[in-house]
Specification:
Helix content: 25-40%
CATH architecture of the largest domain: 3-Layer(aba) Sandwich
Distance between the termini: 46 Å
Oligomer: single chain
Largest sheet: 6 strands, parallel
Number of strands: 9
Number of domains: 2
Strand order of the largest sheet: 1-4-3-2-5-6
Strand content: 15-25%
CATH topology of the largest domain: Rossmann fold
Structural class: alpha/beta
Length: about 325
């Protein structure tokens, strides 16, 4: 059977018209939001979406709203043509790729043209020196933000204070444009998944948010678009994250419920392998509040730097 080629839509109004037309025919629409440079982890999200909806929209958009001016927006990897080929190889394919030009350009800002060029730089991955974060003053004329105030405070929110504001805002925009019935997010970004779930609940979006399990390389490394930036040596050292998390989960299953002891196990392993720890936290799976003893389902979340690459991973502990 010939590979299914997705329709590529770049215009917001056209995307909304397509979705409404499909839903008027009784079809259900699933959305898989991505920033591109797709890998098997993204493919697993699409496979999961196929279990729940008739039609699949994959968004490919490097969101400047979640990067602070000092972060790696301009170096985020991109391969749009390669992404389309990977999507065509997915069983069942996808129906639409939503690849907007710039979701923060409203045609009214005096900086709109510069902003559009910046968006193009980010999308084609040319390392665009002109790329700016839209959190900069007067960057793109955008001034409305969505915050999930308590859930965004810890873990990644500590070291990346604008990140979840940017994520919640762009996901809200995508939900309003695509109007899906279901949206699928990876559990690798555990805090992000829970924040989107809470946002959907609190703002009464009529969307079911599904968390899809982490997909790992054969050696256990959690799949990430940033993995390509690891040197072979750094990649080998980065395995300390998943290996130590697995040891901590096993220790918990054997009765070690003191969270400090479990955190120390992981922290030591990452430091000994040359990693620079951002955080290692054991938190309640829904409230994301720190736990001292494991008495209910928790998730062990880790972020660490290897070289210039920041990696995140987690494991749920259900005992």
């Amino acid at each position: 059977m010939a590979a299914k080629e997705p329709e590529i839509i770049r215009d917001k109004d056209q995307m909304r018209r397509w979705s409404r037309a499909m839903r008027s025919q009784g079809k259900t629409v699933g959305l898989v939001p991505t920033m591109g440079y797709l890998h098997d982890g993204h493919v697993s999200l699409i496979r999961e979406a196929h279990n729940h909806t008739d039609l699949i929209v994959v968004s490919i958009y490097v969101n400047p709203g979640q990067f602070s001016p000092s972060e790696d927006l301009s170096t985020y990897p991109s391969d749009f043509h390669g992404d389309i080929q990977k999507l065509m190889a997915v069983p069942g394919g996808v129906d639409v790729v939503f690849n907007p030009h710039n979701l923060y350009d409203y045609g009214t800002s005096k900086n709109a043209n510069a902003a559009a060029r910046a968006s193009d730089d980010a999308r084609v991955g040319n390392g665009g020196n002109g790329v700016v974060s839209c959190v900069e003053e007067n960057g793109l004329g955008h001034e409305t933000w969505v915050r999930v105030e308590r859930l965004e405070k810890g873990m990644c929110g500590q070291s990346r204070p604008v990140f979840f504001r940017g994520v919640a805002t762009v996901v809200s925009k995508l939900f309003n444009i695509v109007e899906p019935d279901v949206a699928v997010f990876g559990k690798k970004d555990y805090q992000q998944w829970r924040i989107i779930q809470r946002m959907v609940r609190d703002l009464d979006f009529g969307i079911r948010v599904i968390g899809s399990e982490i997909v790992r390389e054969k050696d256990g490394l959690a799949m990430s678009s940033r993995n390509v930036r690891l040197s072979p040596e750094e990649r080998e050292k980065a395995l300390s994250i998943s290996k130590s998390l697995s040891r901590a989960r096993l220790a918990a299953a054997k009765g070690q419920t003191n969270c400090k002891e479990l955190r120390d196990l992981v922290t030591q392993a990452i430091h000994e392998s040359g990693g620079r720890l951002d955080y290692a936290e054991i938190v309640d799976q829904e409230s994301l509040e720190q736990a001292k003893e494991i008495r209910s389902p928790v998730v062990f979340c880790v972020a660490a730097w290897f070289g210039k690459v920041r990696l995140i991973d987690n494991m749920e502990i259900n005992i």
